[in-house]
Every structure is written in structure tokens, then in C-alpha cells.
Amino acid sequence: MQELHNMNKVPMTVAGEARLREELDHLKSEARPKVIAAIAEAREHGDLKENAEYHAAREQQGFIEGRIQEIEGKLSSAQVIDVTKLPKTGKVIFGVTVELLNLDTDEEVTYRIVGEDEADIKQRLISVTSPIARALIGKEEGDVVVVKTPGGDVEYEISSVEHL
């Protein structure tokens, strides 16, 4: 049964978990009490049917409670992986920062492989489920990988694999 449970775990970096816990703490300690106070205040203004503040506050409360449940669910299914504590083998695994050389353009690009929720291409954080990450996982420094992109196949050489 334990093995089955682990299959539902979603990989997450230490930073990703910290961000979620920070947001959860903010929602519970600041946003939730504020919206409860706003609902109480709006109630004092009488007729709730035509009270826009009351309905807006109730809608906001629904959003906050939904987000709290969503974050708690994500944290409960998270498998936090601290790549800095894993042995450096030169292999591409979840959490590593990979420096790639585009063999067509000679451009270097650096990506960190993170959980789906943490992905942000502007920050060079790519999801472990993205086509490029899937092509890289298990490969090693010096390997050449072919990544299928909408614009065609792109060949990258793995310059370095860092456990940052």
C-alpha cells in the first residue's frame, strides 16, 4: 500500500514548497481574517440581497478558502526533493540546473527542472513534464539530446549539470 501512495507524490523543489507554505500562511493569517471582517461589516449595512460589498466579500472568501484547500492538497501530495543533498553524478535529474548548448545556433541556455506548479519560462524554470525536461532526464553531461519543438527538432549538448 505504501508504494501505491508514493506513486501519487508530485515532485517539488525546496523553494517551491517554501513559496506555497508562505502563501498558505498569508491566506490563513491575513487574507482570511480580513475577508471575515469585511463580511461582518457588510452584514451590518442591512439588506444582503442588494449589498454589493457583502457579495464581493463572500466571493473573495470562496476564492481564499478554495486556494487554501488547493495549496494544502498540493503540499500533502508533494515529494520535496532537495537536489543539493543528492550525489552529483553528472546525470540530469529533477531539481538540477542544466546548461545546454544549442548545436544549431551555438546559443547557450540554462534551465532548472522543477515541479509543474513551479515552472516559469521567464525565470528559466521548466516543468519536469515539459518536452525539453523529458528529453533531458537521465542523460549526462556531454550527451546530445534532440528536443521536438513546434518549430522542428533542436539538438542540444548538455554542457553542465549543477545541483544548486
Give the tags.
25% strand, Helix Hairpins, 4 helices, 7 strands, alpha/beta, elongated
Describe the overall structure.
The chain is of the alpha/beta class and 164 residues long. The chain folds into two domains: 2-81, Orthogonal Bundle (Helix Hairpins), CATH 1.10.287.180; 83-162, Chitinase A, domain 3. Helices cover 41% and strands 25% of the residues. The protein has helices at 2-7, 14-43, 52-76, 131-136, and strands spanning 10-13, 78-81, 97-102, 108-114, 125-127, 144-149, 152-162. A five-stranded mixed beta sheet has the order 5-4-3-7-6. Strands 1-2 form a two-stranded parallel ribbon. A hairpin with a 2-residue loop joins strand 6 and strand 7. The chain starts with a helix and ends with a strand.
Uncertain spans: 1-5
Structural class: alpha/beta
Q: What is the overall shape?
A: elongated
Major sheet, described briefly?
Answer: 5 strands, mixed
| Fold-level CATH name of the largest domain | Helix Hairpins
* CATH architecture level-2 label of the largest domain: Orthogonal Bundle
| Tally of DSSP β-strands | 7
Task: Output the CATH class name of the largest domain.
Answer: Mainly Alpha
Strand order of the largest sheet: 5-4-3-7-6
Q: In percent, how helical is the residue content?
A: 40-55%
- Measured by DSSP, the beta-strand proportion falls in 25-35%
Mean pLDDT: 92
The helix/strand order is: HEHHEEEEHEE
